[in-house]
């Protein structure tokens, strides 16, 4: 219910006052300095800051309360020690020169039957609540079943040993794993080298991990084949096509 209200919560310009208050969204320009010298990452323009959200370090947001639109104020703060975002700033005092460009406030709709009827496929709060409870219960039941199956699979996997690996297959799997990680990192705006470095590792260690992932993929394949052979299970063309079709649908493809 709260998520539904949040979805339709909007912001609007404050017109009945000109000073910043707790809970407002202040659009600001700011420049931070230490001993009169601007530091890297300490300036921005047109930033929307919710006062009281704790987005900035202690004292910054509180220092803007009472400032008026158009005002430029100096806010004195002390960086926490340690300051994980930039350890060079840990414990240092800074002065932020902040200009308030505008003030907005959240407009939170009232949760009523009329609101529910207008914005959902249901007509009352209780009807919506009941439907969502059913969806959540079904989703959690499905998750619980998956977790049970996964836990059982992990036990079997941990208790089986591979006598000999197909080296070529392991190598191919390792290459595929590395290509997959490169793709995922590029999708997130990283290079693989940068990701590995940020994780405090090296490419040599990553390559070793890729080989282990390649072995794991082979181990899982061997295990499936062993179980299928022991239980007399066969995969028909129809089974394969149905599974392939389901996979396409799960990922939203034709």
**Which assembly state applies to the chains in this document?**
single chain
- Mean of all residue-level pLDDT scores: 94
> What general outline do the C-alpha atoms trace?
flat
Tell me the span between the first and last alpha carbons: 34 Å
The share of residues in extended strands comes to 15-25%
- Percent helix, as a range, is 40-55%
Largest sheet: 5 strands, antiparallel
Order of helices and strands: HEEEEEHHHHHH
- Overall radius of gyration: 28 Å
Spans with pLDDT under 50 lasting ≥5 residues? Answer: none
Give the structural class: alpha+beta
In total, how many beta strands?
Answer: 5
Number of helical elements: 7
Question: What does this protein look like?
Answer:
With 254 residues, the chain is of the alpha+beta class. Helix content is 46%, strand content 20%. The chain contains seven helices and five strands. The chain has helices spanning 2-7, 113-119, 125-158, 167-187, 192-198, 203-231, 237-250; strands at 10-13, 25-34, 37-50, 72-78, 93-107. Strands 1, 2, 3, 4 and 5 form a five-stranded antiparallel β-sheet that branches. A hairpin with a 2-residue loop joins β2 (25-34) and β3.
Question: Which key features would you list for this structure?
Answer:
single chain, 254 residues, alpha+beta, five-stranded antiparallel sheet, 7 helices, flat
Give the helices and strands, then pairings.
Elements: H1 2-7, E1 10-13, E2 25-34, E3 37-50, E4 72-78, E5 93-107, H2 113-119, H3 125-158, H4 167-187, H5 192-198, H6 203-231, H7 237-250
Antiparallel strand pairs: 1-5, 2-3, 2-5, 4-5
